[in-house]
Every structure is written in C-alpha cells, then in structure tokens.
Amino acid sequence: MIPAHADKMLGVDWGTSNRRAYLVERGGRCLARHEDGQGMLAVGGDFAGSLAALRQTMRVDDAVPVVMSGMIGSAGGWQEVPYLDIATPLAALASHLAPVAGHPGCLIVPGYCTRADGVDVMRGEETQLLGALALGVGDGTVVLPGTHSKWVQLRGGRIARFATFMTGELFAMLAAGGTLAAIMGPGEDDDDAFAAGIAQARLGLPLSQSLFGARARVVAKDMAPSKARSFVSGLLIGTEFTASGAGPGARLSILGSNALGAHYARAARHFCEAPAVLDADAVYLAALTQLLQGSQHE
Amino acid sequence: MIPAHADKMLGVDWGTSNRRAYLVERGGRCLARHEDGQGMLAVGGDFAGSLAALRQTMRVDDAVPVVMSGMIGSAGGWQEVPYLDIATPLAALASHLAPVAGHPGCLIVPGYCTRADGVDVMRGEETQLLGALALGVGDGTVVLPGTHSKWVQLRGGRIARFATFMTGELFAMLAAGGTLAAIMGPGEDDDDAFAAGIAQARLGLPLSQSLFGARARVVAKDMAPSKARSFVSGLLIGTEFTASGAGPGARLSILGSNALGAHYARAARHFCEAPAVLDADAVYLAALTQLLQGSQHE
C-alpha cells in the first residue's frame, strides 16, 4: 500500500532489458522522467543499489515511495511476487502492492495468471491496463504489442481472459538465423506482402507450417525474396488477430503508438473497425496516478 | 534418363549439410556406401570437383551414371531443377530426371510443389517416397520427420497432398536462445511432459501462444523447468499430428528409424494405431533400385 500521506510517487516500469521511471504527483502531473538500459539483466542482482542510483539521477529523495512493475517482481527480479488471479479487479491492484522485504516504501505491482487453455501470465501489462481503464478504455479488447504481445479482454474493470503471443521474439529469431533469415533481411514494408501474410494466417494452419510456406513461396518463385519479411510479419501478427476472433464490431484498443503499434493498427484494418491507439507513456502515467490516488481511499 | 544399358548407378542424397552416397546394381544390391559432411554449403560451388572426389573415394568410374536428389537441385545447388506438380506420379520420376548441363551421366531428381493452402515444396523426399512405394507402402500417410518434417498423403502412387512443418528447426532455435532456452536445456525425455505438450497441441491454439504457455507453466509453478524440453517437443510434434487430422484408422508410416522417428512413433500412440516405421537407408536404396530398373522399361 502506498502511504496515504504521500503526495508524490516514483513509478518504475522495470523490465528485463530496460526501465522507464516517472516521478508523479498526486494530481497526475509528471515532474521528472528517466529511461535507461538498467533492466533486470544489467543490474546483476543489486536492485537496491540500482534504485538508489536512479533516485539520485532523478533527484528523488528516499521519502518518496516507489512502485515498480514488470519483471522486477519475477523469480529473477528483486523479489518474486505471486500472481493474482484474473478475478481480482484491476482497481484492486493498489491494495495488492507487495512491499519489498527490508526496503520500506518500495512496492511491487503483482502480475496476473490465468489457467484457461493452458497457462498464461503477465507482469507489467496489468499496470498498463489499469492506466488504460483510467483513460476511458472500457469493455473490449486491449492489445499490447511487443516481444510477447498480450491480447486482453476487459469486462467491467476485470480481465475476462488474456493470451500471450511470442510474436516479436519469433520474428527476431527467424530473422536472425535459419531457413528464413536469408530472405528476411531488412527491407521496406510491403503492404501487399503483409496482407498476403494476414490472408495466410486466416487459413488457421499451424505456424510451423505457414512459416515454411514463406520460404516455399520464394523458392517456388511465387513471391520475391524482398517480400518475405513483410509476409512473415503479417503472418505472425495476423495469427494473433485470427486466434483472438477479432471481427467487425470488435472494440479494439492498441496500447503503443510506436512503429510496432502502427503494424498492429495496419493489420486491424483487415479484421475490424479502426482501433484506438493509446500512447504507452500516457497510459503508464495514468496508471501511476491511479495507484497514488487509490491510496487515499483505502 | 538413366542409360538403359547401365547395370550400376551411383545415388547421392545431397543435402544442405550432408550427403549420403550408394553404389547400387540393377538387382538392388548395394555395393558401396559413403556418408560425409560435403553438403551444398561445404562444397563452395564446385559440385563437379566434389563429385569426382566422391567417385574416387568410392572407386566408382566415370562411366557409372549418378542420380542426385535433395538440395543439389535447388537454386543454391549444382543446377536448379523445376519442381513437378504433385499430379505427376512418383513412378514417373525416372523419366523426369534432369541432366546436369555439360556433365553427361549426371542426373538430378526433381522435387514437387503444391499450391493448396499456400505453397509447399519438397526436394529429396520425393525420392524417399518412391522408395517407400517400392517397399510396399500403399495409400495412407507417410511422415518424414526432420528439420522440416513432411506429411504426405499417398493415393494410387501419387502425392494427393503434402505439408511441411519447421518443427526441428523451431525446436533447435527455441532451445538455443530466447525466453524458452533457459528451461529447454538437455535433459531426460519425460513421457508425461511430452503427453502434456501433445494435449496442448490438440487445443489448436497458435504455436506463438502455446510456446509462451510453456514458459508460463514454469513461472506459474505448474510445471518443473526440467519438463519444458519434452513439453515443447510434444507440442511441436503434436501440432503436426493435429493439423494432419491423424485419427483412429489412419494408416501411418514413419520414414526414419532413428531417435527422431521414435519420438514421432511415441506421439502417434496418442492419435492412431501403431505406425509402420521404415529405415531411411533401406528406403533410399529401394528408390535407387526403382530408378535404375525403371530406366529399362522406357
């Protein structure tokens, strides 16, 4: 729990490779912001030292509570925080913050776990979802593109279900080595090839089959090698849309206004109405404000 | 076309990384056999020189015709040989051998291409399928496990359809780096985890989702990390079975009596009757004999 008297808070989205930190005041204004590569892997276990250095950089004294989200709460992070079940409303995150043992004022946001259709987990995205709710995103589907994209169905302030897709990781792996790498070199985005990848995804064949199909198209001279990168991108992203049943009438919000978010918005056109695209920074700030204000009502 | 007077033939299964060579006589007896790492990538473009060295090693003189199959007939091989459509019967391969320009007595077996459900191609497997037919494999499904596994439906001596799955390549990639690598270290085969992977495959979710689920099971403490390798193996192989609609009553032949073939035979138990398992060497020899004998009837 954030102390009720706190009028400022340091929020840190602390992931595996990077972290983003924001100093917010109760009204929601962002007083300072910092981003660096001191993710979980770079810190080498000294999270307290790393946080102290961050406070110094941002000129935030020790009295200001810090709320951290992301992989910092995983087994390899500062302290493992058990997952919440998705029955717990997002608004209740404020009362489920886990204090870091021995470090007063240091709190970690718990992630969520679900056990429908196998097991799925999130850490960090729950905070963004809280921010999305605060920004007026209602019932519908929220997509969080990334190395591990999340598709979340929101219903009445709760996560009804969610699914993770290793889209970004698979794309990077396939481009880095193996059969497809030779034809997945950096190139211009190709709308037609992206659409062809989406059309292939709609067939619902396993990715292990459709990915080989990208190479088969090239060696059978049905597709120029320069189009393979966009085809694979469309195939992997289209697979998410197909699996999630996104269709006409779907209320889709994409959380991320960067280049990757733009790819998802481009894919969405093939399935449903134009999605709302939210800025990830704005969403995270809204979440922090929510957590800080929520502390007043407890 | 193999000269009708030839009473011996050198057959080379010439792949990307390796090659296997057999000297066969018309009756089907194998007179010599050689295997080495002089695949397409190692040869550096000098296929004629590499073949001459192979002849020397195996003491096969220049008068003996050589029939080559596999990636040697691809764009990066000795000479690109156009794919046959699957309407062409396997028995007709003998009359579609492509002579290598400027190298009399050097022939390449063409691969097959299909354009159902996207595009798919094979090079090398067609020769093995010819051998399987010769060994009595009739209508039904032939599985050729490997880096790129093939599932082939045979009907009346023709390929009715086929599908390729990048199963072996994906497994190796995932084990080598990224999110799953840490939990996919070498370990004992675990039957229960393999079966759990197959059960997950049956749900028909995209692999990009189910693969993340392997990690989610571990971090949510639903599965011991030591089981992840077998789970992923069951998931990827089970995906092939599920996509291919293998069910009770299916006539399945697995082409490969090695450790990988055993994994597929183990998976088959979850779907259908015990498959026939054929030895890849025996199958290739049968194919060469078939090509050599076929030349007599032309």
UniProtKB/TrEMBL annotation, chains A, B:
Name this polypeptide is given: 2-dehydro-3-deoxygalactonokinase
Organism, scientific name: Massilia glaciei
GO BP term, example: D-galactonate catabolic process
Keywords from the UniProt entry: Kinase, Transferase
Keyword Transferase: yes
Xref: InterPro entries: ATPase_NBD, DGOK, DGOK_C, DGOK_N
GO molecular function, one term: 2-dehydro-3-deoxygalactonokinase activity
